[in-house]
Write a structure and sequence with these properties.
Elements: E1 3-7, E2 10-11, E3 14-15, H1 17-29, E4 31-37, H2 41-50, E5 55-59, H3 63-66, H4 70-83, E6 87-91, H5 94-107, E7 111-119, E8 126-131, E9 136-140, E10 148-151, E11 166-169, E12 202-206, H6 216-226, E13 229-232, H7 234-238, E14 259-263, H8 269-272, E15 280-285, H9 292-295, E16 298-301, H10 304-319
Parallel strand pairs: 1-4, 1-6, 4-5, 5-11, 6-10, 7-10, 12-13, 12-14, 14-15, 15-16
Antiparallel strand pairs: 2-3, 7-8, 8-9
Helix pairs in contact: 4-5, 6-10
The structure holds flavin-adenine dinucleotide.
Length: about 325
């Protein structure tokens, strides 16, 4: 069976959920070979083998942390040459897409970005994309070279598929360009203690109806009771009430949690593009005609300043 390279996104060996989703998709089209760069490879390798990686290629060097993407690109290209895979899958993060695009250019291949599904086809993997604010679904296939495909988070379920997962150290020769752009400083984002938005099982999101930065506390309180991440519409972000890293939608993040609670959000097509694949959608809006209700599994017509604290209280009581 053909091998499929999977570029691993991890933090010190803790593999991030979008990579585990990639392994589910990779198994549909071949045998996953994972590429882990930087420290923590042993921890990552165990997780990757549990999720179906037949082989894990590792390489650690200070260049991965000290410089921008080129060292990682050099390593992925080395893995590509070592394996001659049927496809290369990369998570659709900003960095992932840059690495994927540069790799496609280097190896003379076509690239598909932001796929939301992947299936085997007679002439190579077929990727599904959701385009024009999710108004159209397209299917496409790379017809030149080895397909390089980036896949959005939450596009597939994480499925354990334990294998022996051999670990090999990759040989990497860094190119002259690898050290061209040095990282001069890092400022870690303050931790909220909440789950990462794109990986959370529950998201509570607020929109313009929240009415101000100071009122987002009621959204956060409900989120904390539920162990959820906080999301925001672009209107709330543009007003400066919540940071852009929490924006859900076409120009924000795509989420697909088990439960999405939208409070004071009208449900514009660009917002829906980022959350409509959520398993259960609850909308709280004082306008019974708001388009979000067309999409919601459960709707509450009411003032969020009354409904959200009541809901928080119910969740609290339910846990007592
Ligand atoms: P509004 O549309 O103003 O809706 C506010 C809602 O709150 C209303 O339905 C109102 O009835 C309700 N409300 C008011 N007060 C209360 C209350 N007290 N209790 C209960 N309900 C109340 N938007 C995104 O969200 N994400 C994107 O990524 C995004 N990308 C975009 C990209 C482009 C190119 C463009 C053109 C637009 C994009 N937008 C995006 C903007 C989008 O079109 C909408 O303007 C935006 O989603 C509206 O946000 P909202 O629902 O919070 O505000």
């Amino acid at each position: 069976m053909a091998e499929v390279l999977v570029y691993v996104d991890h933090v010190d060996g803790a593999v991030r959920k979008p990579t585990l989703e990639l392994l589910t998709l990779a198994r549909r089209i071949g045998e996953p070979v994972a590429v882990v760069l930087g420290g923590g490879a042993a921890d990552a390798a165990a997780t990757l083998a549990d999720h179906g990686a037949v082989k894990v290629l590792t390489h650690d060097a200070s260049e991965y942390a000290e410089y921008l993407v080129v060292p990682k690109l050099d390593a992925l290209e080395a893995a590509y040459e070592a394996v001659s895979p049927a496809a290369v899958l990369v998570p659709s993060s900003a960095e992932g897409k840059e690495i994927a695009a540069r790799l496609a250019l280097r190896i003379g291949s076509g690239i598909i970005t932001d796929a939301v599904d992947l299936e085997a086809g007679d002439e190579g993997p077929v990727a599904t994309q959701s385009v024009f604010a999710a108004s159209f679904t397209t299917k496409s296939r790379v017809i030149k070279g080895t397909p390089v495909i980036t896949v959005k988070p939450n596009s597939a379920a994480v499925e354990p598929a334990p294998t022996a997962g051999t670990v090999e150290v990759l040989k990497v020769n860094f190119s002259d360009e690898a050290t061209g752009t040095k990282v001069t400083g890092r400022t870690p984002r303050g931790s909220t203690g909440r789950p990462e938005l794109t990986e959370a099982a529950i998201v509570v999101a607020g929109g313009r109806g929240v009415g101000g930065a100071e009122h987002f506390a009621i959204i956060e309180t409900l989120a904390d009771e539920l162990g959820a991440a906080v999301g925001a519409s672009r209107a709330a972000v543009d007003a400066g009430w919540y940071s852009h890293t929490h924006q859900v939608g076409q120009t924000g993040k795509t989420v697909s949690p088990q439960l999405y609670i939208a409070a004071g959000i009208s449900g514009a097509v660009q917002h829906r593009a980022g959350m409509q694949t959520s398993k259960t959608i609850v909308a709280i809006n004082k306008d019974a005609e708001a388009p979000i209700f067309d999409l919601a599994d459960y709707g509450v017509v009411g003032d969020l300043f009354e409904v959200v604290p009541q809901l928080t209280g119910e969740v609290k009581d339910g846990k007592a």
